[in-house]
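Figure 3 (text version): structure tokens given as input.
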């Protein structure tokens, strides 16, 4: 199960009554009871008020779960973690594969030719030989810059044609149209922002302080222009209001021709924009951008990326090859955070981006800028292709799933039947499994010392189960002051020593090797080497 977004609207959940209306016949077909069926979509079994969540259902029916970037994997552990009570976030099986984009679809043809000339091995299939991309540094600045200008000129011509196209619904005034024609120029630093107008993407952030924006776009020597495009979901009124606000700002006399909103956003316009602007801007509310992909399209075209460190950019950002806003939130209050982020954007544009872009030598090539493009191409772009993504899926998930699937099915599903029978047996006995005692058996009153060995013994009443159906482990965590943020530092399994009737004795000689204050506890779990991971059968008892 690949979970795609932390935004709640992306995790559908329905009342039980609605599920009953449409899926009442499912349990019969599957040979299970209604309770078994409905509980597949809940974290609290049999809670009539909990909705049936499609994401919980998917987790329960999938061996592996992943987010679409490293950070999104972490955030998904928080969102889904409630499904496995008794386990900490650190321990969950949820992984990640960072999204990528298709090189041959999104990289401009002239750049593909240029790259092929200098490092043909760098983007040929079956892999893009990522290290070969370092040869981007061998391309003469003037040659790379010339190709970038080709793309920018194409975009500008397209925009001019588009805004004058009588077939398009008109909202730009005649004055705006004239201004757009006058001020859209290839030698003006151009910043693009285009995507779905979901509110978390904060398309309006740039308009937080209109006077500062005014000073930036109307700087007489070093002007800046902004191109916006995007659509909102038909039911997303707040998203549509963002577009309205952009159109309003674009119509203000001081921004006419400087802030341009392009309608009818689609893949074709997206392609031209990510290839043709100088900077691609992204301003999501952390940590809601699961991955984001338009910036990946931009960087493979040498379009510099400027974004909040969220989604793919946490992994992608490379000093000198793009710009970032910090990953950590400074304010709880979203309005304060927006204000801070907006100020950081203005300052970065003024102090860093604009000078880099406009510093020209006699050949009119911005060498510093082109150097940044090269860093972006060599150290960022090749890591975010669909090729790399598919390789990750293969190595982290599909490969092992294929193998396990083959074993499970062999011999008329023998392994599947064995595991199912074992799970049934353990489930039936689990309520009676009881931790009788857990103690350090040879510790006096003196302090615990590094390098000394201390025996811990746990006695479990395993009533009806076999001693090796049960695992006993000692968990050590940094001293816990926030139950939601437990950091497990060590986990060690105890060894079965002996059995007396239904009592099993487990032991470990524990030798502390770090100083500090830790919380330590004992946990009992069902143990079977055939399980892919603990979350597959997440019964657990804590002492
Ligand atoms: C790539 C793409 C997107 C996704 O952009 P994000 O950066 O993930 O917001 C949206 N729309 C179109 C048309 C695209 O091509």
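Below: residues designed for each position.
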């Amino acid at each position: 199960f690949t979970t795609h977004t932390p935004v709640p609207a992306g995790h559908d959940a329905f009342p039980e009554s609605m599920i009953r209306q449409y899926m009442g016949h499912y349990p019969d077909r599957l040979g299970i009871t209604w309770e078994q069926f409905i509980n597949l979509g809940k974290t609290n079994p049999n809670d009539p008020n909990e909705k049936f969540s499609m994401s919980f259902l998917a987790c329960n029916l999938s061996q592996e779960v992943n987010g679409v970037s490293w950070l999104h994997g972490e955030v998904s552990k928080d969102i889904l973690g409630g499904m496995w009570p008794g386990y900490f976030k650190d321990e969950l099986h949820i992984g990640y594969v960072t999204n990528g984009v298709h090189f041959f679809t999104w990289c401009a043809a002239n750049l593909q030719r240029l790259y092929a000339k200098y490092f043909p091995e760098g983007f040929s299939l079956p892999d893009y030989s990522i290290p070969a991309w370092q040869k981007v540094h061998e391309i003469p600045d003037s040659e790379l810059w010339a190709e970038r200008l080709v793309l920018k000129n194409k975009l500008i011509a397209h925009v001019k044609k588009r805004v004058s196209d009588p077939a398009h619904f008109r909202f730009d005034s005649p004055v705006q149209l004239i201004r757009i024609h006058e001020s859209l120029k290839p030698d003006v630093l151009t910043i693009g922002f285009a995507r779905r107008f979901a509110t978390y993407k904060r398309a309006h952030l740039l308009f937080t302080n209109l006077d500062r924006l005014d000073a930036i776009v109307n700087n007489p020597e070093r002007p800046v222009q902004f191109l916006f495009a995007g659509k909102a979901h038909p039911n997303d009124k707040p998203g549509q209001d963002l577009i309205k606000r952009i159109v309003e700002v674009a119509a203000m006399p001081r921004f006419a021709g400087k802030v341009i909103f392009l309608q009818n956003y689609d893949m074709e316009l997206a392609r031209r924009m990510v290839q043709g602007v100088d900077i691609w801007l992204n301003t999501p509310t952390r940590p809601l951008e699961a991955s984001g992909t338009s910036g990946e399209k931009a960087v493979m075209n040498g379009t510099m990326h400027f974004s909040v460190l969220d989604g793919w950019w946490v992994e992608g950002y490379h000093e000198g090859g793009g710009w970032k806003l910090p990953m950590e939130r400074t304010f709880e209050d979203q309005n304060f955070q927006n204000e801070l982020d907006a100020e950081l954007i203005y300052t970065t544009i003024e102090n860093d981006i604009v000078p880099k872009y406009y510093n020209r030598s006699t050949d009119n090539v911005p060498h510093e800028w082109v150097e940044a493009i090269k860093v972006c191409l060599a150290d960022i772009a090749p890591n975010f292709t669909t090729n790399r993504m598919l390789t990750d899926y293969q190595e982290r998930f599909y490969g092992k799933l294929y193998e396990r699937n083959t074993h499970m099915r062999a011999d008329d599903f023998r392994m599947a039947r064995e595991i199912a029978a074992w799970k049934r047996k353990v489930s039936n006995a689990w309520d009676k499994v009881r931790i009788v005692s857990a103690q350090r058996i040879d510790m006096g009153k003196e302090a615990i010392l590094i390098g000394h060995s201390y025996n811990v013994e746990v006695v479990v009443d395993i009533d009806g189960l076999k001693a090796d159906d049960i695992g006993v482990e000692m968990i050590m965590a940094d001293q816990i002051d926030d139950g939601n943020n437990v950091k497990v530092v060590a986990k060690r399994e105890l060894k079965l020593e002996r059995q007396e009737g239904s009592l099993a004795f487990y032991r470990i000689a524990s030798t502390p090797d770090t100083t500090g204050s830790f919380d330590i506890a004992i946990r009992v779990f069902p143990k079977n080497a055939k399980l892919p991971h603990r979350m597959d059968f997440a019964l657990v008892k804590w002492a």
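Residues 195-196, 266-267, 270, 292-295, 297 surround pyridoxal-5'-phosphate (CB under 6 Å).
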